[in-house]
Amino acid sequence: MAFNKKKTSFIIAILFLLTAFVGMQTSAAALEASLVAMAGGPYLGEECSSILLNASGSFDAEDDPLTYRWNIDGSWIENGNYPYMEWTWYDDFSGEITLEVSDGINTTTDTALVTISNVPPQIFSIEGLTEVDEDAEYFLAINFFDRDPRSPTPSLDMFTATFSWDDGTSTELCLGAGEFSASASHMYSEAGIYQVMMTLVDDDGGEAVAEWGVMVGDISPVEVGPDCTIDEGSMFLSAGFLADTDSLTFSAIVDYYDETGAVPLQLNPGNTFDLRHIYVEDGVYTLLVTVFNDDMEYGSDTAQVTVTNVAPSLESLSVSPTNPYLPGDVFQFTALFSDPGILDTHMVTIAWGDGSSTQYTTEAGVTRVSGSHSYGKAGEYTIMVTVTDDDGGTDTSSMSVVVKSPSTSTDAIRGIIIGLKIPKGLKNKLLSILENVPHLLKHHKVHAVIHQLQAFIHFVEAHSGKNLPRAQAKELIQTTRMVIDTLRAM
Fold first, then answer.
1. Which end of the chain has fewer CB atoms at under 10 Å, N or C?
2. pTM here?
């Protein structure tokens, strides 16, 4: 009896412990569900620009007041009872931030993805002279910033500044974070107008470019630019300037001397000008720019443009109707080509692959030739096309044409017969008449084949409209006559 009492007490104790354990688990699950952190995001932005971190989705089921803090770059930032926090990254960044939410007793966390992109630097001023003597030291400086203009704090980027002096030399400077100006000096040994290129690149690849013009020494009143070489049909591009960069009384004309005549030339601010022209024929041209000041000639300059020939290019070869053909079949052949030299004439030679050829001469602007041809024997022929312009530029292309042996054409007749819904005896009789044709052709007995096929036609005519429907009989007769015509042409 005592044993039973002890056993009962032990079971009650076990049940009590299990009930307590289940209660603890239920309590923990309830806590987890009642306090939730939501970090928001993903957040996208640019360096030096403020981003609003939003934890307003966080909640406590019991409406207890919450406190917030954020872990950014390994450091905790307390934000009190405010679910919103503005934060600025001063360099590009990609990673996670962590939000911790507390109700005073318990805490929970959530993470959000952040991607901050690099902002390229911006050059906002250039300081330097626009005129300098030869062999004199020349200074040029740039000022820039690398941040959102609304942000008082710059980025943490470092920079490389390159001054390209337009005479084959350059100067490169390395700048640390917070250095937002760069200056360099140079000495020009020859007179002329130089366009200095200033390139600024941050350590994340962001780039800014600026240009500055400087006149060195005494130069002619009009500079038209360097001589150059281009392909025919392409755009000639160049630029020039006047020594007097301030006066507004100038006008100019340009003659490209390719028989297009002189045309007005627009002057840009600072009395620079742009040259754009398409030369459609090869040759050597001396273009002339003439400048007037109050209707009086102010000055002129020339540049030599060498235009090289561009060979024509065969674009497509085609036949109609499509091959294969039978011996004697006439087909149409077409060749299309292109040539940027639109004034060129062309010689087109078509070698048919059977020992014969055809030659065509096209006028300027014509880029298509067509001709007809037929082959007397079966085989595979390569058509070779060569197009040559009047300056010696040439291109070649080819295609293959297949001519089937007449013997294979009886397969078409046999195919029609096999597909007919006619008495079996009649079908076998039609096939037996054709049975000896391949053997006769193999031994070049063309006349015997023709007689055999004519007998076949007579047999078909005799059964047309009886056991053989008229439409099928007509198809058999037409196909057989085509084979006979081909054989007679051999």
1. N
2. 0.46
How many Å apart are CA 87 and CA 282, to the nearest integer?
A: 64
Q: Which CATH superfamily is domain 37-117 in?
A: Immunoglobulins (2.60.40.10)
CA-CA distance, 154 to 206, in Å (whole number)? 15
Q: Which of 322, 320, 328 is nearest to 484 (CA)?
A: 328
Q: Which residues contact 468 (CB under 8 A, 6 or more apart)?
A: 420, 422, 426, 460
Cα gap 457→267, rounded to integer Å: 86
Per-state percent for the chain, helix, strand, coil, to nearest 5: 20, 45, 35
pLDDT on residue 148: 60
DSSP codes of every residue in 322-353: PSPB-TT--EEEEEEEE-S-TT--EEEEEE-S
The one-letter amino acid code at 469 reads: P
For residue 150, the model assigns a pLDDT of 61
Q: Which CATH class is domain 313-403?
A: mainly beta
Superfamily per CATH, domain 222-308 = Immunoglobulins (2.60.40.10)
pLDDT value at residue 194: 87
pLDDT at position 485 is: 80
Q: What is the pLDDT of residue 300?
A: 93
What's the CA gap between 482 and 477, in Å, rounded?
9
pLDDT of residue 20: 41
| Ranges in the chain, pLDDT < 50 | 1-32
Confidence at residue 247, expressed as pLDDT on a 0 to 100 scale = 82
> Of 93, 111, 96, nearest to 39 (Cα)?
111
Phi-psi region of 204 (alpha: psi -120 to 50; beta: other; left: phi over 0): alpha
With beta carbons less than 8 A apart as the criterion, state whether 79 and 71 touch: no
d(CA 455, CA 162): 93
Buried b (16+ CB within 10 A) or exposed e, 154-177: bbbbbbebbbbbbeeeebeeebeb
**The pLDDT of residue 218:** 76
- What pLDDT does 11 receive? 40
CATH number for the region 122-216 comes to 2.60.40.10
Pull the structure tokens for residue 74.
């390994």
